[in-house]
Specification:
α1 (2-24) packs antiparallel against α11 (422-438), α2 (118-130) packs parallel to α7 (227-240) and α5 packs across α6 (191-205). It is globular and about 80 Å long. It folds into 2 domains: 29-53 and 337-429, Peptidoglycan synthesis regulatory factor (PBP3), Domain 2; 68-329, Beta-lactamase, CATH 3.40.710. The protein contains 11 helices and 18 strands. The chain has helices at residues 2-24, 118-130, 144-147, 164-174, 177-188, 191-205, 227-240, 245-248, 268-271, 311-328, 422-438, and strands at 44-46, 63-65, 90-95, 101-105, 139-141, 161-163, 252-255, 260-263, 275-283, 287-296, 299-308, 329-335, 340-345, 353-358, 362-367, 372-380, 393-401, 404-413. The strands form 5 sheets. Strands 1-16-17-18-14-13 form a 6-stranded antiparallel β-sheet, with no helix packed on it. The protein has a 5-stranded antiparallel β-sheet with strand order 4-3-11-10-9, sandwiched between helices.
């Protein structure tokens, strides 16, 4: 009896629905979530105003998605008159998540980077690891060329092999030139081919002040970069490959079963609270360079110092920059990727509505003085019809201060929603009634 009833019901319902759909196809109308009838306005008390691009003249802060876009750093409003009285050749302070430039001193001056060059080398190694091209356990041989490198080294010889993990440790902690060359040759077959990849990556990231001539940083004519470009590649490394801090935060360690002691050339790792790295460099021509990174209270900063007169000066000036940033600024998270902020009503879909999510993380770097209201407005598009694809843009989340837009991030569909068809409709009705009749 139940089977006959169910069969009759499905057929009748299908016919009625099909005829109804045909008759009303041209005027099918379902209320949807819109900016007029659904606004989320949240007011938060924050320090200082914020801006994006050139909308408002505010105090060196911006709102941006924290999705990594290292091609450019936003320098609007950065301090440029050198109140910290830095005496190095060039310097920059940026907030890591947004890329906001908080302090700028000769940041585009083209200078010799020395072993800070290895930030790019490490970046390419980490890309190879994270892509699965190589593994930390892989054994890396040492060529005659690698063995004969001068400067900082762990005295590799051609009869031994170290793992990628050991090579990275030696490069990050003691800036080993022999390990750097061995890894370059392992990845690309030759130093020359690896350096070509370095320059290719630099161009991709928008490092317009940079030309690499080698992978280690030993002085060579034409091997130059800037504090700005070092900040770009340092940010790319730390945000895309955060596991690198496993190596860059080591102060003391050893290799070869304890026979080779390693002591980090970056003294801030030991004596600066929250230090996460990153890389030192010095030669007789380049003088003393440093890319220093640190995280405190949810905010990450990168300070770059180039051409310091002494080793101590580079650490002092990096400390000044980091202290300036942590004293005057804070990072506020406004939204995270995949946070649900509303619902989307869908026309002619097998589901009537689905959750809407934020596409990217959104955060604010702001001064710790003054106060302004940040308004947050959700707009979900009207008249969205199936099919809808997961990740499809279906709206926008906008942030404003005093009616000036400071950031905008896409809102996306949280799942696929196929269009209603006779087959899908019958299937849905069948499943519904089968469930009911089983109860």
């Amino acid at each position: 009896m139940k089977k006959k009833f169910l069969k009759y019901f499905i057929i009748c319902t299908a016919v009625i629905f099909f005829m109804s759909s045909v008759a009303s196809a041209s005027s099918y109308d379902i209320p949807v979530w819109s900016s007029q009838n659904n606004k989320l306005n949240q007011t938060n008390s924050v320090s200082n105003s914020a801006k994006e691009n050139n909308n408002v003249n505010l105090n060196s802060v911006n709102v941006n998605s924290t999705a990594v876009k290292s091609e450019t750093l936003n320098s609007a409003g950065a301090v440029t008159n050198n109140p910290l009285k830095l005496t190095c050749g060039g310097a920059i302070l940026i907030e890591q998540n947004t890329g906001n430039v908080l302090y700028n001193y000769n940041m585009h001056e083209k200078l010799r980077p020395a072993s800070v060059t290895k930030v790019m080398t490490i970046l390419l190694i980490m890309e190879a690891i994270d892509s699965g091209r190589i593994k930390l356990t892989d054994k890396v041989p040492c060529s005659e060329s690698a063995s004969s490198m001068g400067g900082s080294q762990i005295w590799l010889n051609t009869t031994e092999e170290l793992t990628v993990d050991e090579m990275l440790k030696a490069i990050c902690v003691v800036s080993a030139n022999d390990c750097t060359v061995a890894m370059a040759e392992y990845l690309e077959g030759s130093q020359e081919a690896f350096v070509a990849k370095m320059n290719e990556k630099a161009k991709q990231l928008g490092m317009n002040d940079t030309t690499f001539k080698n992978c280690h940083g030993i002085d060579e004519d034409g091997h130059v970069t800037s504090a700005y470009d070092i900040a770009i590649m340092s940010r790319e490394l730390l945000t895309k490959h955060p596991s690198i801090t496993k190596y860059t935060t080591i102060y003391m360690d050893s290799l070869r079963d304890g026979k080779s002691e390693l002591v980090n050339t970056n003294k801030l790792v030991r004596n600066y609270d929250g230090c996460t790295g990153l890389k030192t460099g010095s030669t007789s021509l380049a003088l003393f360079n440093l890319s220093a990174s640190a995280t405190r209270n949810g905010m990450s900063l990168i300070a770059v110092v180039m051409k310091g007169k002494t080793s101590n000066e580079r650490f002092q000036e990096a400390r000044k920059l980091l202290d300036y940033g942590f004293t005057n600024y804070q990072y506020k998270e406004l939204g995270k990727a995949n946070d649900v902020v509303g619902n989307l009503t869908i026309n002619k879909g097998i589901e009537n509505n689905i959750p809407v999510q934020i596409k990217n993380d959104v955060g604010l770097v702001m001064k710790k003085t003054n106060s302004n209201n940040i308004s947050q407005n959700i707009e979900i598009f009207n008249n969205i019809s199936a099919p809808v694809e997961k990740g499809q843009k279906v709206g926008e989340l906008t942030f404003k201060i005093n009616d000036k837009q400071i950031a905008k991030v896409d809102l996306i569909a949280s799942k696929d929603v196929p269009k209603y068809s006779l087959t899908s409709m019958i299937g849905k009705i069948y499943n519904t009634w089968f469930t009911l009749l089983r109860k």
